[in-house]
Amino acid sequence: MKNILIITGEPSGDLHGGKLVQALLNKDKGLKIFAVGGEAIQAAGGHLIYDNESLGVVGLFEVLRHLKEIKKAFKAVDALLETGSIHHLILVDYPDFNLRVARRAKKKGIPISYYISPQIWAWRYKRIHLIKKLIDRMFVILPFEEAIYQKEKVPVEFVGHPLIEEISPSYSKEALSKKFGLNPMKPVIGVCPGSRKSELTRLLPVMLEAAMKIKKELPEAQFILPVAPTFTGEDISTRLGSFSREVLAIKGDSSEVMAVCDILMVASGTATLQAAILGIPMVIVYRVSPLTYWIGKLLLKIEMIGLVNIISGAKMIPELIQDEATPENIASTALGILNNPEKMKEIKRQLFLVKEKLTDRKASERTAESILKMVYP
Predict the structure, then answer these.
(1) Are residues 334 and 186 located together in one domain of the fold?
(2) Measuring CA to CA, which of 124, 211, 288, 291 is 20 to 30 A from 174?
(3) 119: which residues sit within 8 A by CB, 6+ positions away?
(4) Count of CB atoms situated within 10 Å of the CB of 183
(5) What span, in angstroms and rounded, lies between the C-alpha atoms of 37 and 25?
(6) Could you tell me if 368 and 340 lie in one domain?
(7) Same domain as 94, residue 187
(8) Phi–psi pair at 14, nearest 5 degrees
(9) CB contact at 8 A, 230 and 196
(10) pLDDT digits (tens, 9 = 90+) for 28-38
């Protein structure tokens, strides 16, 4: 029996990690997989040594506030590595934590795979030299990342994006409207503040205010909010308050919720690619603490923050960042797209091209096959 440890630090990592764990166990039922993860990895058959619920935070001060939990998680990982029972380590994104773990594992001679690269192309590029020293193989999910690692002579494989295999190729808007109790003849607008508590705090209030401004201009508008696995229905209903009469909160498959929408107000991140795969136009919204934003501006090496825009190479989707992310701007931008059929059509065409770049490869299957070749050389 071989023992594998997989480490994820946030909900999207847990989701993708869960698919990878499932693929690994399908191919080798004799594996035992330990994890820092959440519900998805546990449901797939992973044994949690630490729940990552408190680890997925954005921003410098948010990290400082969760430092105690991060240290506890590291101790749990370190204790397992000390037993000498782990034959392979899989890291999923979450670089500050994972590269520290990689140092420990490397000293113990444990082979290390990295699935879903840190965004070195956006900031802290020099990390690639540390990755070259510590990581045996990178499995990247964005098409342009492979060339970056190849240039630095880091073993790398582009496996495609895991969202492609997680999202149904076709949804019926009429069937989904019926399922959610919506009128398919009236516009549906998605309120997607993200899966982290810090995002919920900073983005949901402005999105809700934007929704009400849209409602004034477009009285027939309907609003729906996908509840991330990290939140309970009570978490959302408490924050919605009086808005709960206008905004339908749905816990479950976020792709179904997005697919029923005509346009989304969406937090910058993986959700923008989810929307791209579904072909749903969107307005990207991003807000962090003022100091985190100021430091980020100094460090970032890219002009766009939306993954969907970065992959397309052009700002085809509007990005409202920090002070620009006001209810007025979000509402007017969303309405400007929603009320312009030609613009809607062109955005959908561009989104289709982004989806094609992500490829239809089964990322989890390909990654699992390659990792098993490393586990059983």
Answers:
(1) yes
(2) 211
(3) none
(4) 11
(5) 16
(6) no
(7) no
(8) -65, -40
(9) yes
(10) 999 999 999 99
